[in-house]
Specification:
The chain is an alpha+beta fold. 54% of the residues lie in helices and 17% in strands. The chain has 17 helices and 19 strands. Helix 3 runs antiparallel to helix 4, helix 6 packs parallel to helix 9 and helix 15 packs antiparallel against helix 16. The N terminus and C terminus are likely disordered.
Length: 623
Amino acid sequence: MGLILTGPQSISRKVLLPSILVYICYLLFSPLTFASEPSAIDIATHHQGETTGDNYYYLIDSSQSLSLSDVITSAEWKKSEHNITNRGFTSAVSWMKFTLKNSSQNDFDMILEYVEATVQSIDIYHRKLGDKGEFIHSNFTFSAPVSSREVSFYRPAFELNLPYLETHEVYVKIFPGSQFPMHSFTAMRIWEQTQFYLSTHVELTFMVILLCTELFMGLATLLVFVISRDKMFLYYSLFAFSIASLFASLSGIWGYFFARESYHLWMVVFQISLSQIAAIWFVRCFLNIRHISKIIDNALLLVIAVSITGAIINLSGFPYYPRLIIDNTAFLYILLVPIGLFAWSKKVPHAGLFTFCWAVFILGMIAASLRLRGYLIDSFVLQWLIYIGGFIEAFLLTTIMVFRLRDMQNAKLKIELKHRLHLENYANELSEQVQQQTKLLLDAKEKAEVEARVDILTGLTNRRSFIESAHDFIARAKRCPNTNLYLLMIDIDHFKKVNDTYGHAAGDAVLIAVAKTLSDTIRTIDVVSRLGGEEFAALMENKESQGAIDLSERLRKAIENLVVVFEGQTIQITTSIGIAKWQPIDNLDSLLNQADNALYLAKKLGRNCVQSSCLERQQLKLV
């Protein structure tokens, strides 16, 4: 018996082709084969706040023209996909169809809440299942006054009464917007009325805390800017205000509380544009991008310019393109993280912590964008992630601004300390200069006083100093009655002839020589002075009259023997001396008169002699 062997390629083709066909059939028919029909939602067992889940059909009306009667009879209804409720950005109308039953023994007052705040309009139609009567209709329009809403809430919400043991069919028409595409969800939360208001009050409290925190941070940094004039605090303040405005608009709080009569979707887009402009400008300035990279700085300025252009176009009545701009700009936010890391590598202060803060905020922004585009499964956590991330980011950024304020204060203290040290050094230098100048002044004063009391030519005290000393001598003599005080008036004979013969310089040399002779001969406790010209005077204490006469005679002889050599010429001179003794009845003037009279007498008797005005002079013998 022979065996027929088949090659590997033949076996592969025979096995692979049937396998592919089976797999394709499985993909095509398994959803129809295994998909179960959406079941009625039993509100008696449904968890509070949960959405309609997968228990609904949906229909997309791209023409925006189908009426309720059209969709009821339409064959285009599709069963919801598992955990998919986001229909992406679209202008098409989305319809939902689901049934609600009440298996309890009590009537159920319920609230149907749409999961998003920003939608142009929603219509709810419901009636008892099997009933051919009219539908009960409720409407929410975003731009309509708040007072026209069936349920006073910042998101679309509708009241619905479901009697016990009844089942109602519900149709929901969701129109995202006509001016530009908006995100559309086929999901409604189901609440018992009491639980709805309780839960929404908690939610509103959290939102108010978040917004007040942002506003407080903005006001606080604005106040710091007013005080410090640091523009960074102004930029952060504008950023905080814009983020607060963004959160208020996205959540629906802005239209609910501040624009109750009219609020439009284009206004939401405008507020998003403002927040993006403020955010990018703040990031650019905080990270000091202008100084560390011109390329990155120009790119950020371009994004800011595009956003400003979009905001202007939006205000001009064309919100479609601004809507596209903010969508694409939001995804560029992720690039701010590596930019922050780059700034951190360049030693920009607090750039590392700033990048972490921004990453937290961007995480919330990206999650929100992916949720709105249908890339992430919608959930309550994802819906609130942007707000939670924004709250954390605002807190951390405020912390960074506090650090910046601390750095400014430290820098200010360093500058003040440096300035204080500079002032102290300057004060010390000035004090030293003052001390030096004071010393110079004191020296000059002392010198002036010396010059005022000393004859510059001879070095003897002058007339002024002599008179002061004479008064002191007389005062002392008056206190001590036994004190003997004598005044000698000394005059160089024919001194004018010396000046005329040898010159005034020679005369000065003679005066100096005479002064030295007088100083060497008279005691240091006595006083010898030049009164002027060729006239000298001396005051002596505690000498007997004969002692005064003897001293005067020694002075006369010393000067008579004095030889003055000036410029090779020999000059000899003589002196005449008059002596006066102080008496208790005398004052300085009378004493001077007596001495002058004695000097005059010596001149009259031929000069080069000593004469005394003492009463006993007739008995004194000249030695």
